[in-house]
Amino acid sequence: MFGKKKQKPQIDKEQLELIQNAQRRVRQKKRLYIHFVLFLIFALPLFTFNVGLGLADEFTLATFPWSVVIIFIWLAFLAWHFLNVFLFNAFMGKDWEQQQLNKLVAKQQARIEKLKKELKSEAPIIAESEAYIEEQILKNDQDITIIVAAGENNAIGKDNDLIWHLRDDLKRFKKLTSGHHIIMGRKTFESFPKPLPNRTHIVITRQKNYKVPEGVIIANSLEEAIVKSKADKQPFIIGGGEIYKQSMSIANKLELTRVHHSFEDADTFFPEVDSSVWEEISNTFHDKDENHEFAFSFITYERR
Length: 304
Ligand SMILES: NC(=O)c1ccc[n+]([C@@H]2O[C@H](COP(=O)([O-])OP(=O)(O)OC[C@H]3O[C@@H](n4cnc5c(N)ncnc54)[C@H](OP(=O)(O)O)[C@@H]3O)[C@@H](O)[C@H]2O)c1
Description:
Elements: H1 13-52, E1 60-61, E2 64-65, H2 66-88, H3 93-138, E3 145-151, E4 155-157, H4 167-177, E5 181-185, H5 186-190, E6 200-204, E7 217-219, H6 222-228, E8 236-237, H7 241-247, E9 253-259, E10 268-269, E11 278-286, E12 296-303
The structure holds NADP nicotinamide-adenine-dinucleotide phosphate.
């Protein structure tokens, strides 16, 4: 009952075969090396005894001293050994290679079949969840609102930060978004020192194990973020560039702070506001002053 458990091999047959062949190859090379060393050890003394010291120098073959003949014959053997290891026996031969290839192809085909089967069984689940999200968005009765501050050239940020500091714009942002869900891209979320108080954060990321502080919600797509904000009648999409671009077609309200300056060194931009799609509802100008380096306008748009 408590007998020794039979050890299961950890590697499969093909891997074992590969390892054994690699070991055989190492042994072949080792033998060639030893052959070469023996040749070096014996060839020189042989030559010295025979030619240098005149040992049995009366024996010659076709006028060559006997040691030179032996060295030449040995050299020929050595060359043959070398060719055998590196040329004729280059790895394990064509048949062996073909066998390995066939095995690998058969293995891959089996894997593909298995994956196809898995995909078939998962497809209805994926389709169902996508259809659910689409349905939720279609019957959505929320006021999905984009809130953004953009320069005259649509600049919104640089180096994952804002380019300006406008006190009254921040105040307005706080006033409008407080108590609501705020939906943002992962990069915008990371530009905050910490989550903003009194708002439910939904962070969009493609990462599966993205870690966030307690209370922050993760969504793997904009659609999922909208579904997760459905308890809120007016969720705000607060950026950044990637998320604004994707949400222009699903938002029905736009709170734009137009900063009256062109920020040429920006690296993130808001999409063009198309007046055939967006109707201007209100527009309030704010001049520059000691707290505001640039003049700006609060403009509210609604989808036509
Ligand atoms: N002026 C403004 O009003 C304002 C407002 C907000 C932000 N900003 C500025 O905008 C800049 C950041 O914008 P950004 O465009 O670089 O980044 P972002 O839109 O904030 O975030 C981009 C990230 O969101 C995730 N993402 C995007 N689309 C996705 C999708 N369909 N599904 C799943 N995840 C998705 C990806 O995260 P993963 O890489 O983790 O997958 C992507 O890297 C900063 O400079 C910031 O200061 C300006």
